[in-house]
Amino acid sequence: MAKTIFITGASSGIGKATAILFANHGWNVAATMRNPQNETELAQYPSIKVYALDVTQPESVSQAVEQALADWQQIDVLLNNAGYGLAGPLETASEEKIMDQFNTNVFGVMRTIRALLPNFREAGGGTIINVTSIGGLVGLPFNSIYHATKFGLDGLSESLNYELRPFGIRVKIVAPGGVITDFATRSLKRTVDGPSVYDASLEKVFAAFGKNSANYSTAEQIAEVIYRAATDDTDQIRYVAGQDAQATYGAWKSMSNEDFFAMINQRFGLSE
Ligand SMILES: NC(=O)c1ccc[n+]([C@@H]2O[C@H](COP(=O)([O-])OP(=O)(O)OC[C@H]3O[C@@H](n4cnc5c(N)ncnc54)[C@H](OP(=O)(O)O)[C@@H]3O)[C@@H](O)[C@H]2O)c1
Description:
Blueprint: E1 4-7, H1 13-24, E2 28-33, E3 48-52, H2 58-72, E4 77-80, E5 86-87, H3 95-123, E6 126-131, H4 144-164, E7 169-176, E8 179-180, E9 189-190, H5 199-211, E10 217-218, H6 219-231, E11 238-241, H7 243-254, H8 257-267
Parallel strand pairs: 1-2, 1-4, 2-3, 4-6, 5-9, 6-7, 7-11, 8-10
Helix pairs in contact: 1-6, 2-3, 3-4
NADP nicotinamide-adenine-dinucleotide phosphate (NAP) binds at residues 8-9, 11-15, 33-35, 53-56, 81-84, 104, 131, 133, 176, 178-179, 181-183, 187, 219.
Organism: Spirosoma linguale (strain ATCC 33905 / DSM 74 / LMG 10896 / Claus 1)
GO molecular function: oxidoreductase activity
InterPro entries: NAD(P)-bd_dom_sf, SDR_fam, SDR_oxidoreductase
């Protein structure tokens, strides 16, 4: 029998590429998104059904889970992909922007997991894959709030894996580096709109992020890593995805903190 994956944030980027990849591998796909009325491409796949889901709205999460279970009876993999970046200095962030970032990137993930766990337990298993970021393993400048959400998801996933393993449920994370999607354009939010005392460093950091984009992955490449995490039947928890992310993570693990810190300062033009 075909397996089923439930994906959040399937309207674009990694979520959409993953929906198409799994459908092409013969899976049923519950592709959820905030505005399903705008979606035309995924609806053309007979094994993809599109559902409305905003991860910040608890009723929307439970309704989408109910509808998907009515259609497919069982979900085998939950992909928590919905998320966005909030970039800029912590000091200039409004309380509302900080709350929104955690509501989407962290509390949204908790909501979908809690909504699907009864089905996973009754079925005797399942896999939860949380899309984090290299910024959920290594800190980079001027992304402190975003990193806090992704480091948070990393800890959530590792702890939860112990809790759920006795029920046959695995929790994994996929941590991409830069990916060419809407992430850095229409989806990105900033903590500061006008001038601030951080301008000199901030400009250098944003310019450096732009310059490094030659090494970025495509959404399809990250979807392949997600497919591996969903199907390799191993207890591997972390999948660092993309050449840039692997290089950064490798350096962070092999270098002293002092040397790594100096390298990152230099890469982002922050050295004295
Ligand atoms: N691209 C990168 O460089 C990169 C690197 C590391 C990690 N990531 C992570 O990868 C994931 C996917 O991002 P992407 O690169 O594919 O960017 P993207 O193209 O901007 O996709 C983000 C998706 O999340 C959805 N979303 C945002 N808020 C939502 C909410 N409240 N409820 C439901 N869906 C919501 C968006 O929906 P709408 O269409 O409605 O806005 C969109 O479908 C994110 O978790 C991101 O943090 C991305």
